[in-house]
From TrEMBL:
Residues 220-379 form the TrmE-type G domain. Its main location: cytoplasm. The keyword Metal-binding applies. CDD domains: trmE, TrmE_N. K(+) binds at residues 230, 249, 251, 254. Mg(2+) binds at residues 234, 255. InterPro entries: G_TrmE, GTP-bd, GTP-bd_TrmE_N, GTPase_MnmE, MnmE_dom2, MnmE_helical, P-loop_NTPase, Small_GTP-bd. Its EC number is 3.6.-.-. PANTHER family: TRNA MODIFICATION GTPASE GTPBP3 (PTHR42714), TRNA MODIFICATION GTPASE GTPBP3, MITOCHONDRIAL (PTHR42714:SF2). This is tRNA modification GTPase MnmE. Binds 1 potassium ion per subunit.
């Protein structure tokens, strides 16, 4: 248990109607009580109650602000320590002066993430849950928030506990075999190791399958809108974000630099990049734009290749269609409101039907079909079920991969008839990787690295 009592502003700095200063630690109540002028003495109030009064500097006698104070006594609090929250008036002046008074009274300024770190160190949540708290704060869509909230409640941790138990049991069994070979315990055969490690490996792989979708929910799909000049790329961006964000003209080569916007389709966040139309050009500025389009194309998770259905296919477009065939590409046949001229059969012979969408960006027709196509391409269907667990954290994903590798090594070793004490090393490594996700085996420097990503006051 930490000795010192910490404080920080828990709300965003800026003009708001109220701001909250949070205090946590054994002396939270004792240190705040003398600064709080009220009908009640904070030292005597019940836990989880709110009190009206003023924060007053006992030395100068100045009243700093009219406030509401909440008391939550440990262990039934966010940090499991005594917590006092002071709601001041919004804006930075009131909240800063209250915080300064607390710091003068022997309370220490919290480090970023220190409240959550204490909740972890005091055993109320595990490391994966603590990390989910950052994801909660950072989430940009309601789906991402849902995923993070489930994880903050311990969904991933619950999946890992039985896996770790199975490995520990196997390790114990192996241990007895090694230490007491004369003992009458059933020998751990290659078959036993293969079956047990195989069962755990399958579950680790199931979790890893959710990783791609989890990452998308968290970070958004980087989506490059590409095509020939005048195909209607900027019009498509505008139709997706439902405002006139990018300049649209009938002059080919209008967009020069990349225009970026965010939009959420069926709960999936997209980071849209409208790019300069790709063509050979003598114009220096346009050529730089085309190079940037190429760069965006290279980095994209999703490519929307826009073709004008009212024009015949251009050589450049044939090249793009060929080049992007094996990438996550959706071909947009734009200007569906005009008479068709494009060789649609040629496009459809190269791309499966669910990846070719006919629409009119200008008239806003066919946009739902595009939304469905994006959804189908990225979500294998599980996303709507609220109880799905997604692994979205890069650290968790790499540890799951490490565990999978160790398990595969153990299985291979068993099949090749390696000595049991060598196989034991792989099983132990897998167990440790899984433990590191929830923080059983986390080092101090890892904790520092994780918690320093938090904002102050969390
Ligand atoms: N004012 C305020 N609002 C807040 C928070 C906070 O700390 N303060 N939270 C901070 O993130 C979130 C709520 N999360 C919380 C999670 C656990 C506990 C807590 O006291 N847990 C106790 C059980 C309490 C009970 O059962 O009565 C526990 O787990 O022991 C409090 C807040 C969002 N809103
Ligand atoms: N009829 C019709 N016209 C469209 C449609 N989409 C775009 N246009 C027109 O096509 C022209 C070019 O549209 P933009 O959106 O600027 O095309 P772009 O691909 O961004 O062009 P660059 O920035 O030059 O590469 C404009 O005159 C648009 O009004 C559509 O669905 N139907
Ligand atoms: Mg444009």
């Amino acid at each position: 248990m930490n000795e010192d009592t910490i404080a920080a502003v828990a709300t965003a700095l800026g003009e708001g109607s109220i701001a909250v200063v949070r205090v946590s630690g054994a002396e939270a109540i004792g240190k705040v009580a003398p600064l709080f002028k009220s009908r009640e003495d904070l030292r005597e109030v019940q836990s989880h109650t709110v009190h009206y009064g003023w924060i007053k500097d006992p030395d100068s006698g100045d009243v700093l602000d009219e406030v509401l104070v909440t008391v939550m006594k440990g262990p039934r609090s966010f940090t499991t320590e005594d917590v006092v929250e002071i709601s001041t008036h919004g804006g930075i002046v009131a909240v800063q002066s209250v915080l300064e008074l607390l710091l003068r009274s022997g309370i220490r300024m919290a480090e970023p993430g220190e409240f959550t770190k204490r909740a972890f160190l005091n055993g109320r949540i595990d490391l994966a849950q603590a990390e989910a708290v950052i994801d909660l704060i950072r989430s940009k869509s309601s789906k991402a928030f849902q995923v993070a909230r489930k994880q903050a409640e311990g969904a991933l941790s619950k999946r890992l506990v039985p896996l770790k138990e199975q490995l520990i049991e196997l390790l114990a069994h192996v241990e007895v075999n090694i230490d007491y070979p004369e003992h009458d315990v059933a020998e751990v055969t290659a078959g036993v190791i293969r079956d047990h490690c195989g069962a755990v490996l399958r579950q680790v792989e199931t979790l890893l399958k959710t990783a791609a979708e989890g990452k998308i929910l968290r970070e958004g799909i980087v989506t490059a809108i590409v095509g020939r000049p005048n195909a209607g790329k900027s019009s498509l961006l505008n139709a997706l974000v439902k405002e006139n964000r990018a300049i649209v003209t009938d002059i080919p080569g209008t967009t020069r630099d990349i225009v970026e916007e965010s939009v959420t389709l069926s709960g999936i966040p997209l980071r849209l990049l409208d790019t300069a139309g790709i063509r050979e050009t003598e114009d220096i500025v346009e050529r730089i734009g085309v190079e940037r389009s190429r760069g965006a194309l290279g980095d994209a998770d999703l490519i929307l290749l826009v073709l004008s259905r009212s024009d015949a296919l251009h050589e450049e477009e044939r090249r793009l269609l060929e080049e992007l065939k094996d990438r996550p590409t959706i071909v947009i046949l734009n200007k569906s409101d005009l008479a068709p001229c494009l060789e649609e059969g040629e496009v459809r012979s190269m791309y499966p039907s669910e990846r070719v969408v006919s629409l009119s960006a200008k008239e806003g027709l066919g946009m739902e079909e595009l939304e469905r196509a994006v959804f189908k391409l990225f979500m294998s269907g599980g996303i709507e079920s609220a109880d799905a667990t997604y692994v979205s954290n890069v650290r968790h994903i790499s540890l799951l991969h490490a565990a999978a590798r160790s398990l595969q090594d153990a299985i291979d070793g068993a099949e090749q008839g390696l000595p049991v004490d060598l196989i034991q090393i792989d099983i132990a490594a897998a167990w440790e990787s899984l433990g590191e996700i929830v923080g059983d085996t986390a080092s101090e420097s890892l904790l520092d690295q994780i918690f320093s990503k938090f904002c102050l006051g969390k």
